[in-house]
Amino acid sequence: MISEPVAKLLVAQVGHELGAHQAYMGMALYFERQSLKGWSKFFHDQAVEEAEHAEKIISFLIDNEVDFGLPPVGGATTTYPSARAAVEAALASEERVTGQFNALADAAREAGDHRGFSFLQWFIDEQVEEERTMHGLLDLLDSGLNLYQAQAHLGEIG
Ligand SMILES: [Fe+2]
Ligand SMILES: [Fe+2]
Question: For the whole model, what pTM was predicted?
């Protein structure tokens, strides 16, 4: 079993991960609209990863016999003023998620929940990569290449 506070926060985190899934789908569609297939695929892949994060947490909750419902997910925009604005929104979202996992780790420590604390380590490490990916995209946008040319370099990021 895991502690009550960690279980509650993990259920909420399923909603945050599914929210991130939707947000990235919205970004993929924003790029798709401009026929930027490479950018669209990049964000679609990110969206799939977020759904996998939700599933990883769901499996852990089930393994620990936590009863839960799936939290409501709030929709996402498919329009941004610019590619940079979309990537900045993605970075802000990742930084928010990092804060959520830090709060989860604090809760696990306070509750003496070693099992929960250990589970969280993967996500805490993953957030380093996630933030780095978005910084990489901002550097690519700063490179002077246009969005079409930049697509050839997306494979070097993330
Ligand atoms: Fe995630
Ligand atoms: Fe993420």
Answer: 0.96
